[in-house]
Amino acid sequence: MARVTVIGSGFGGLATVRALRRRIPGAMITVIAPRQEFIYYPSLVGVPVGDRDASDVRIPLDDFIERYDVTFVTASVTGLAHRGRTVVTDDGAIDNDVLIIASGAESLRTLPGLEHTLAICDGVEAAQEIRDRIEGLRRGTIAFGFAGNPVEPQAVRGGPVFELLFSIDTYLRREGRRDAFDLVFVNSSLEPGNRLGPRAVSGVMKEMESRAIRAHLGHKIRGFAADRVITDDGDLMADLILFVPGMSGPRWARESEMALSPGGFIRADQSCRVFAHPGVFVVGDAGAYEGTADWMPKQGHAAELEAATTAVNVAHFLAGEPPTATFRQELICIIDTLDSGIMVYRSPRFAGALPSPAWRMVKHGLESRSRHAYGAPRRHRRAATSR
Length: 387
Known about the structure:
This protein is α/β, with parallel strands linked by helices. It has helices at 11-23, 54-57, 62-67, 124-136, 159-174, 198-210, 300-318, 358-373, and strands at residues 3-7, 28-33, 37-39, 58-60, 70-74, 77-81, 86-89, 92-95, 98-101, 106-107, 140-146, 181-187, 214-217, 221-225, 228-231, 234-237, 240-244, 247-248, 266-268, 280-282, 287-289, 331-336, 341-346, 351-355.
């Protein structure tokens, strides 16, 4: 009976478990993650504006573990041994016949003064702190921004920042407080979010203009202080700084024998096979996939596509056969503005953006689908209201 170990309990890890169970029903599957829960990151932006709370985005995995007959190990990975056949954790070593790395990426915390900022992508606690800080402000300037990895610029999370920016603008308007605030978006690029495609960038910039959101673009961000963003074009004073830094690969991978990209991500082919490590695959944000477009996102949808590909190729590997599957290169992003939405789509043949209030309903439907798929029953969602 094949022993399959999956590192991570995010989109990539859990989607891989589901796909593996369909392909290899008898496999012994072990999942390793620090907490026995799934965080639905796409809805985190709703927490600061009262559209979601912690219980909406935290999904316990008890039902998932039972349904898919998984052994869950609550631990943090510290390294690999025997070319991936052993995973070393802070709670002991776990051997395998196949390893799938779906541990996600880490924030690249190299800019000085990041401790003075809050990042929506840091999780539930960060989202709650943003909510509390906004509630405590009566007036002032809120600065928003994001950065990439200097040696791997595509390792960036721009979509959540745009969502947060527009949602907070809508929230403040609903509360009658928008006139007391100056919202400013800062980015080193003249075309922030350009991997979404030119139409998306144009749409986002027009949306900022229509909402009277200032844009400070094209000047390198040097760091932060408690009350300012420091750029090559001078300091931008701010009472609250909401900034998402670039991404890098998992820290423990740097001590392994795996080949890493310049930005620290695990190098693999489009079959999700890690180079020079037979029986080791990577899914989701932790991977750098050779031959893919430079706009390929690090997001849940992409991880689910890679998970399906990996399950097919794991079955072939265990049967002693070459891989047959490669994942579809596709970007789908819904920018929720709290009062409407913008759907951004990109593939090798097409890139576009379409605004519509209906996209909010679609996004809530996707949340419900994930809640059902990854371990919790469907339940009625309340309509979005201001608090």
